[in-house]
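Long-time lurker, first post.

We've been arguing in lab meeting about whether pyridoxal-5'-phosphate would sit comfortably in this protein at all. Half the group thinks yes, half thinks no, and nobody has a model to point at. So I'm putting the question to the forum: if I give you the sequence and the SMILES, can you give me back a predicted structure of the complex? Inputs are below. Any interpretation is welcome too.
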Amino acid sequence: MKFNTKVIHGGQHHEKVTGAVMPPVFQTSTFAQVSPGQPIGEYEYSRAANPTRQALEDALASIENGARGLAFSSGLAATDCLLRLFKAGDEIIAMDDLYGGTYRLFTRLYKDSGIKFHFVDMNDLDGFQKLINENTKLVWVETPTNPLMKLADIAEIAKITKKHNILFAVDNTFATPYLQKPLDLGADIVMHSATKYLGGHSDVIAGALVIKDKALGDELHFKQFATGGTLGPMDSFLVLRGIKTLHLRVQRHCENGAKVAEFLKNHPKVDKVYYPGLENHPFHDIAKKQMLGGFGGMVTFTFKSGAKADAIKFLEKVQVFTLAESLGGVESLANHPALMTHASIPEDKRKEIGITDDLVRLSVGVEDADDLIEDLKQALA
Ligand SMILES: Cc1ncc(COP(=O)(O)O)c(C=O)c1O
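Top reply:
Settle the argument with this. Predicted structure of the protein with pyridoxal-5'-phosphate, as tokens:
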């Protein structure tokens, strides 16, 4: 089955009793049993499994080409579940530019866990390999990164992790499986903030893991069941509905993202534009190799003045774009990473990686591109 068919039919069946084409919202915590320990059907209790969540999880596995999908109450709950595979003494190598909440989870929540985190430039493959030792258990990469649109070469990193028998996880939130399939490129686990493009309508907080190996998927399901960060039936329904139009939406996000990036590149008040589709983007070659069919809808830029005040004024003036956290919905959003999504990263660390105070991140939606560009024009003016 090809991708555009999979988003609609992958892992899906009509409902057995009524023939409902969309899986109903099985808004129930528990399922009747005929005798103790003998449920009527295959379900017992919704923390373990629920038919609506199962339909979503099967769709997730299908579109990411994995053996098992798991749906969580948020992207961070998914990442937290994955981290439960590791114990004191283990080491994790992560990319040095990550979503602020992921960085906070690694550096604050797991601070006293005894797990050691290294944050490195994943494009310096020699430097990264030097850190590997017998305690290294996981490599964690976000590509493209939030908000600086850095890329990591998934296939090259996978060659190294395979050689050393280390798990390799990729946060595929920005690219989506429409553009990039980490498991096909050699990764073991894909993570999503399904709040973003998978859900696609800014109406749900959700997360996902898709695992290539069935046994590892089952182990993670046990951890999810035992800790309980599962996605509810209604939210599962919403993400599943979102996935059915993922291919259509992402195409338009890519078209609009490219037009917005081109407009910003030529604007006299704009300094740097971070968009992997631009030929002068430092990781354009990696993008061409592993993001197939487009470069996404996320565009980040800075001001020639370098002034925080200019970024703030711009964000107060946008009208079609909404000033808000999050991304990946049909509507365009604008965000100030240093004051909003990435405020949990200490200031010196933010400066070191390039999240300056004049940096603005745009999630370019699927509206008419002319209206978006007019809006940017007036806000920049
Ligand atoms: C790239 C990326 N990964 C993970 C997350 C965390 O996901 P959630 O907000 O659904 O917990 C986010 C949220 O913005 C994100 O942008």
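For your lab meeting: The first helix runs from residue 3 to 9. The CA atoms of residues 256 and 369 lie 6 Å apart. Whichever side wins, do check it experimentally.
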